[in-house]
Amino acid sequence: MDTASLGALAALANSLTWALASTTYARAARLRGAAPVALSRSLLALPAYLAWAALSTGIGGFAALGARGLGWLALSTIGSYTVGDALFFAAARRLGASRALAIASVYPLWTTLLGVAFVGERLGALRGVGVALCVLGVIALVAPRGSGGERSQSGARGAGLAMALGASALWALNGLAIREGALGASLPAVNATRHLFAVIALGAVVAIDRARRPPEGRGPLLPVDVWPMLLPMVLLDGVVGSSLFVYSFTHADLAVAATLNSLAPLFAVPIALATGDERWSAARLAAVASTVGGVALLVGGVR
Questions:
Q1: pTM of the model
Q2: Is the Cβ–Cβ distance between 37 and 29 less than 8 Å?
Q3: For a Cys-Cys bond, which of 113, 137, 197, 201 suits 290, CB 3.0-4.6 Å?
Q4: What does each C-alpha distance from 273 to 158, 268, 270, 288 come to in angstroms?
Q5: Which candidate, 52, 74, 81, places its Cα nearest to that of 188?
Q6: How far apart are CA 127 and CA 295, in angstroms?
Q7: What is the mean pLDDT for each group of 10 consecutive residues in the chain (303 residues)?
Q8: 24 with 229: CB under 8 angstroms?
Q9: What's residue 152's pLDDT?
Q10: Three-class SS state of 184
Q11: Pick from 194, 195, 191, 222: which is nearest to 206 by CA?
């Protein structure tokens, strides 16, 4: 199997790890907010990557990044862990999580265009249709159903729409930044750097938020009883998943990597069905069929 195919498989596997971990992250975020959970994830993942980098490449792995690589990885952190995610959560408060995710899920389209415009990637008609089918399928899977779902006022909807589109643009930029920042560098050095930048940025966000609270409202970063369920998910997603994520963007085309990394809802649906949280419907079946068909076209066109 060639490296492009391995990159595509890594992206699919990362979607599965995110589908499994995101439910735990969401439960923890309801207790303290998204930033403390994201900070905890990076604080736990960073030592693992530092140890991996020390054992594999030593300081040379970080030296290979250079100023260019560091700049791209800083941009990646802005696009993913900090500003991009902050815009998404702000949009979710105004539109509801499902609507915000449905809008932001168009980001593989922007990543594909970035790959064509700046990296010189060739898309082709079949792979273009594959990207479109995957995006439409994901949007259908996460879109709210019925008229009694999440509601928002018209003013909030306009702001929420702009924020969700902004999040999708920054998530797309993250893919390009990973691709460019990781050139010639080792995977553990790349992810250690990303998580270090995330710790700095998210630590500042959390510190500012805590400073605004009265002393009795500050408390620990996360409740003690959250850590037993969070630790396995950080190992699964923050270490294994992040490694698969970076590998996919450095070994597969941006169109393939971004689209297949966005398919967590495809895996979340069977999980929800197995636990009784969801029921099959014709619309859901069509969304799954669209997504799977898009994956087939994308992977079939991997060079």
A1: 0.84
A2: yes
A3: 137
A4: 33, 9, 5, 13
A5: 52
A6: 9
A7: 89 91 80 83 94 91 93 93 85 79 87 90 85 89 61 70 92 94 92 95 90 78 82 91 95 92 82 68 81 81 54
A8: yes
A9: 52
A10: coil
A11: 222
Residues ≥6 apart with Cβ < 8 Å to 140 = 283, 284, 286, 287, 290
Under DSSP, the state recorded for 213 is S
> At 78, which amino acid appears?
I
- On whether the CB atoms of residues 142 and 101 are closer than 8 A, the answer is yes
Query: Residue written as tokens 């990207």?
Result: 131
Measured CA to CA, the distance from residue 8 to residue 259 in angstroms comes to 9
| Token pair recorded at residue 144 | 């709210």
CA distance 141 to 137: 6
- DSSP class of residue 221? S
d(CA 132, CA 138): 10
The predicted pLDDT at position 141 comes to: 81
Q: Which letter does DSSP use for residue 182 in this model?
A: T
Q: What angle do CA 180, 191, 177 make, to 5 degrees?
A: 25
d(CA 121, CA 125): 13
**Residues ≥6 apart with Cβ < 8 Å to 25:** 37, 41, 233, 237
Instruction: Note the pLDDT of residue 150.
Output: 47
Q: What is the largest CA-CA distance in the chain?
A: 59
Tokens (6 digits) for 224:
């003690």
Token pair of 1, please? 């199997």
DSSP characters over 91-124: HHHHH-HHHHHHHHTTHHHHHHHHIIIII-----
- For residue 15, the 8-state DSSP code is H
